[in-house]
Amino acid sequence: MSHGTTDIDEDDRKILREVQRDCTRSLDRIAERVGLSRTTVWNRMQKLVANGTIIRQAAIVDARKVGLKQTFFVTISTSRHDIEWLEVFRSAVVEMPEIIEAHRLAGTTDYLLKVQVTSTEAFDNFYKALVSRVSIFDVSSSLSMEELKHSLDLPL
């Protein structure tokens, strides 16, 4: 995945706003909403996919409706910053499906994980599995009591 900026214009932004909301809309509907021809929208979308601006198109699943009712945020501080530790940690993050987001942070905390599980017992099992795989200096977990906002739409 490329993290460089890609030149996009206002028409690209209009298309991206539409497909962020619903990528199942027809090209005709998107073209109508953004004021461009169907062919132009198709060509621009192909460019946005090819240059990595559109990473993938997927269904957004309600975690609660599939039994994943508990969201935990885990903060991790490590005393090790060598490549070996990072590779072990990165492997654990990638291989543990309960981790739905992972961020390396600036500041006093090194990493923040968002973990989605069925229950606090499932989280405890996840936690034990994580600390058995990775040597962690300090770890703290917080249960989300209420989600106030969840958006996948970037502010374009």
UniProtKB/TrEMBL annotation:
Instruction: Report the GO terms under cellular component.
Output: cytosol
List, for all copies, the residue spans of the domain called HTH asnC-type: 8-69
Query: Which Pfam families did the record assign?
Result: AsnC_trans_reg (PF01037), HTH_AsnC-type (PF13404)
State the source organism's domain of life. Answer: Bacteria
Keyword list (alphabetical) reads: DNA-binding, Transcription, Transcription regulation
Q: Which GO terms describe its biological process?
A: response to amino acid
**SMART domains the UniProt entry points to:** HTH_ASNC
The answer to whether keyword DNA-binding applies is yes
GO MF annotation list: sequence-specific DNA binding
Annotated PANTHER family: DNA-BINDING TRANSCRIPTIONAL ACTIVATOR DECR (PTHR30154:SF17), LEUCINE-RESPONSIVE REGULATORY PROTEIN (PTHR30154)
Q: What is the name of the protein in this document?
A: Lrp/AsnC family transcriptional regulator
Taxonomic lineage from the root: Bacteria, Pseudomonadati, Pseudomonadota, Alphaproteobacteria, Rhodobacterales
